[in-house]
Amino acid sequence: MEKRNYTRGVNPRGPRREKADNIQMIFGLRPITEALLAGKDLERIYLQKGQRNSMTIEITELAHRANVPVSMVPPEKLDTLTRKNHQGAVAYLSAITYLPLDNIVADIYEKGKTPLILVLDRITDVRNFGSIARNAECMGVDAIVIPSRGAAQINGDALKTSAGALNIVPVCRENNLKDTLNFLQNSGIQVVACTEKGDVDINAGTVDLTGPTAILMGSEEDGISPEYLKKADAKVKIPLVGQIGSLNVSVASGIILFEVLRQRLAVPG
After folding, report:
1. Can you list the positions of beta strands (E) in 13-60?
2. CB-count exposure of residue 136 (10 Å: 0-12, 13-18, 19+)
3. Does residue 9 have a pLDDT over 90?
4. What gap in Å lies between CA 49 and CA 90, rounded to an integer?
5. In this predicted structure, what is the pLDDT of residue 269?
6. Helical H segments across 73-205, by residue range
7. 5-93 — its CATH code?
8. Rounded CA gap, 155 and 130, in Å?
9. Beta bridge partners of 90
10. How far apart are CA 190 and CA 192, in angstroms?
11. Cα 261 to Cα 43, 54, 135, 215, distances in angstroms
12. Three-state SS for 1?
């Protein structure tokens, strides 16, 4: 019978970060399969490159259905994650529970609220993500949307930087952000991209942010993907007067979300 291997609190960066991250690791093909079948929220799965059998195929299929990213890595990478008999498979349980976006949007409308959604395209720094989540909670964001691939791992650092916001604001992990933007627009929610390539300044008053709105923010490296930028109903930029031509994405998110809040608070009633 296959031995089931579990260990808690293991962090790939070493024991010094174990307490801060506090993430549960699962290793072994059968335990990961059972976790997926049980509906556990997994942050990421690592499978050994070149290993293909009925169980790895099942894990890959189940992970795809659950929007869990799977990385094919060499055995040396897996050995750095754990010294245990991992059987070519390691996974991390998520520190939060991901929620379906369609249910959240429906619930917002049913409550008579005006949706404010924050869509993050490939934010990879965990502290940036935590700071953004904190901004989002303070400014009344109803949900944060991230892609299943290319997003920061939500670990102990992210939770700590968010000051608890990641336990309050729902986070939705989506396989295809293009489909997600289509869904939001079909739900009556305008998509406003915050980008240096924006047509107007956010404080120009030409973009109405008082209605149902999704704010789209891009990655630290190259901003919003061109295919998503084309989908936006409006493109706004933050006016800058200094010599440095860009802001940290967490700072930028706070500025644009404050503008949304400012406009909404200015509406009578």
Report:
1. 25-27, 42-48
2. buried
3. no
4. 12
5. 65
6. 75-81, 101-110, 126-138, 156-161, 177-186
7. 3.30.1330.30
8. 9
9. 27, 46
10. 6
11. 31, 51, 11, 12
12. coil
Of 162, 168, 77, residue with least CA distance to 123? 162
Identity of residue 78: L
Classified by CATH at the fold level, domain 101-266 comes out as Alpha/beta knot (3.40.1280)
What residue ranges of the chain are covered by domains with CATH 3.30.1330.30? 5-93
DSSP 8-class letter at 222: T
In angstroms, the CA 181 to CA 184 distance is 5
Of 8-12, 80-84, 150-154, 212-216, least confident by mean pLDDT is 8-12
Contact 23, 15 (CB under 8 A): no
Give residue 23's pLDDT: 62
> Residue 145: what residue type?
V
pLDDT of residue 6: 33
Say what the pLDDT of residue 222 is. 85
Note the pLDDT tens digit of each residue in 72-117. Answer: 999 999 999 988 889 999 999 998 999 999 999 999 999 999 999 9
User: Start-end ranges of CATH 3.40.1280.10 in the chain?
Assistant: 101-266
pLDDT attached to residue 74: 94
Using alpha carbons, select from 99, 94, 96, 91 the residue that is nearest to residue 117.
Answer: 99
